[in-house]
């Protein structure tokens, strides 16, 4: 029996985060009864929130603790290290923004990702400038360092494109539903089709311990910039508009109508890429080898400069089966928590340590 099965009987007494916790987790009967008692004791009319984000698979057995006034840390029992820590956010900046935007109560899941992951890399630029070529080369040279975030799109596959590798090819209705359900980090209508980065796509790369690369358009880059994800934003420019057109035509994958549309959009994208302030770096892809060398230099420098997670002093939490998960709390009052990001993406900076006995441990 899932927690949602008991919801009708307590609908008069609703509390956003407790109800979402009960609905989303498979809690034990005792936990459910305790939660109902708590709800009854609240004695006021509250609302059931919409649950956003890619939720953990249903699980039995967990421990949980409230972190500050923003989120709940849920530790799944008997799960692999890359799937044991989840955050249910109920009052983070993202939640406040969504609440305002959607006009309803919301909570959101964010998966806890172990380690001090290096910042994801967002690459944008007009169609045909060579983003894909640069990324392929990088992935080929450093296959265990970088991982590509496989986007969803409603456009038809090109001849050599494979589902799940180049894109997740999907239908508009299905993608729109997933967007409404909060499963996407960002999405945009590009050249007449829907494109988007699912939270799962980014998590899949992080679960492999790799640095995530996103090839997305300028609108998508703007959305990621506005989110809590800390990434490096790179805009690729062509040496000239004529050369861009030449490359787009020589690729031979678009109809004349599509080429015209992409070239029209390129003018606006180039303008925005250069002037909007979204991008940390602009790279001109003129001679390929020299551009690729600059691209690598830039990533290497950023890697060295990547902000280290601060030392952790506050929260800690226990997990059964001989493992303790230590949550990175704020170091000083007023400083932001040292775990990074959060819904609509994963929360990085978790530290999971094996130990001889379960129990809460101070660092
Ligand atoms: N520096 C370069 N000089 C000449 N040709 C290039 C260069 N870089 C890439 N190309 C070629 O330009 C064409 C477009 O490149 P690519 O497909 O990588 O562009 P893209 O930016 O990923 O496009 P889209 O946004 O449509 O996916 C390809 O045929 C590629 O081989
Ligand atoms: N906002 C997003 N834009 C995306 C995503 N995946 C790809 N793109 C951009 O779309 C255009 C066209 O791509 P094509 O494969 O049809 O040539 C290109 O600029 C990509 O950067 C995404 O997930 N979100």
From TrEMBL:
UniProt keyword Kinase present: yes
Family membership: Belongs to the guanylate kinase family.
Listed Pfam families: Guanylate_kin
Enzyme Commission code: 2.7.4.8
UniProt GO cellular component terms: cytosol
Catalysed reaction equations from the record: GMP + ATP = GDP + ADP
EC class of the enzyme, as a word: transferase
A GO molecular-function annotation: ATP binding
Disordered: region residues: 336-363
Source species, domain of life: Eukaryota
Keywords, comma-separated and alphabetical: ATP-binding, Kinase, Nucleotide-binding, Transferase
Domain Guanylate kinase-like: 118-300
UniProt protein name: Guanylate kinase 1
Keyword match DNA-binding: no
